[in-house]
Design a protein that fits this description.
CATH architecture of the domain at 6-74 and 97-287: Beta Barrel
Strand order of the largest sheet: 2-1-10-11-7-6
Structural class: alpha+beta
Radius of gyration: 28 Å
Shape: globular
Low-confidence stretches: none
Helix content: 40-55%
Bound molecules: flavin-adenine dinucleotide
CATH class of the domain at 6-74 and 97-287: Mainly Beta
Largest sheet: 6 strands, mixed
Number of helices: 17
Distance between the termini: 82 Å
Number of strands: 14
Amino acid sequence: MALKTAEEFRESLRDGRVVYMDGEKVADVTTHPKLKVATDTAAFDYELAEMPEYRELAVVRDEKTGEEYSRYFHRPKNGEDLLKRHELMLVASRLNYTTTPFAREMIDSFNGCVVTAHAMGNRDYIERTDAYLDYLRKNDLSLAGAITDVKGDRLLRPADPKQSHPDYYLRVIDKNKEGIIVRGCKAHITSPAYLNEMLVMPCRNMTEADADYAVAFATPVSAKGVIQIVHPFDSHRGPLDFPLDIPVRSHTDSLVIFDDVFVPWERVFLCGEWQSAATAVYNFAYLHRHTAVTYHIAWVELIVGLGAAIADFNGVTKAPNIREEVTELIIYLNTMKALARASCIDYVMHGDLAIPNPVTANVAKHYYADNYHKVVKIVEDLCGALLTTAPSFRDWQNPATGNFMEKYLGGRAGASAEARLRILQALRHYPCLGTELDVNNIHAEGSLMAERLTIYSEARKDLELYKQLANYLAGNVKMSWEEYKQLCGELSKLGKGESQR
Ligand SMILES: Cc1cc2nc3c(=O)[nH]c(=O)nc-3n(C[C@H](O)[C@H](O)[C@H](O)COP(=O)(O)OP(=O)(O)OC[C@H]3O[C@@H](n4cnc5c(N)ncnc54)[C@H](O)[C@@H]3O)c2cc1C
């Protein structure tokens, strides 16, 4: 079968899947007002493969058969393959207005099963994973990865009788000649509402008692018994925003219920081998941490650009404190980029599959996530309070108020008020910065810099005393015992409201 067009991909989603959103059953995810946004976001993966200039990056040709298939379905054999995959994800995210299509990035979860099958030396699983990969390639499918269980009491194991029911982790409830029947629920699963297949695997290590929970398999999203409840995401572009001429991109996540779902044996990749559950999930995670940091680079490029642009509109680019803040943003972005690439270059082999260096890939993802809120704070600081207090586009359109906004909300000479307001809107729209509470906490009653300036000027006398102490103890100045006692007395008054400034 040939590669699918984006339209054929959309058509493949009209398959009777059971999806609920906002209290209603969704008739067609490709036309539903909200899910259409997410479907279009994923469909970009197929569009990219049709663009001549990106064809070579997005599509791989089988040397023996000449058949073409998505690069996501190519098993990386070395660092070069990993770097091409890295480049594909990054290019797709950039072109897709900074949002990853997420149509097949979750091949990471399947590759976790492949590595596990080889590590176990299990011929059945190796043959089944080979056959499934072939099926994905030939039918040019998309897939989600369903790993996270709802878990119930997190300190209890899946099979612990103290759990209030046995289905907090997905498990096998029956087996027969044809296959297995599974029951359970996976949470926060990105995009199965608008993709073809789901790869399901355990989210943790298992003990012998948990053997029924050690199960991995692939299933069509439309299989009988699969029920999705999608969270009511908002695409963050309301009627009060300045109109933008670019498509809205966004994803949503499903609570996926497996209400006694049948899975044929040829799609089962782990069943009862509890010792291998951890191998599967760790191998998925090694790959997926690299995927995550890669597609977030496109996102962070936008955040850095918006932060630098608002500083420019405010006319403060040359101020040392602003330069320092923008430099922090650049360090953040470039560290992410360097770590993501380094994890490909320093790849390790798991069987015949190259995976990004597990330590570096995890350092990259950890660095990105651990510092993200610091970066948000910097950008919100750069914006000032207007990020949250700006009047709306309707006020801009109203002749009674629009002129005042134009006159008073401009920044440096030559920068229009509209352009400045649009940068702030973009920050609210794309990375969802600037909630009232966030900005209030940074800017209300004075910005962070206003406080720092006051602290410095008010503490000058304190500093003089600290310097006297330092110079005396360093031997630079002489002091009598009485003078030293007096200095200590002055020091003890500091911060108690007794000292005169
Ligand atoms: C936007 C988004 C998209 C996602 N997409 C997917 C997806 O496509 N597929 C998928 O499978 N998952 C997905 N996830 C799920 C993600 O992997 C989980 O959120 C993550 O693993 C944490 O699990 P949890 O949310 O259940 O939190 P919890 O596990 O409940 O963690 C909450 C807190 O409790 C702590 N904790 C939990 N258990 C223990 C314990 N035993 N001992 C001590 N501390 C503990 C944690 O460290 C954490 O601090 C997504 C999540 C998000 C936010």
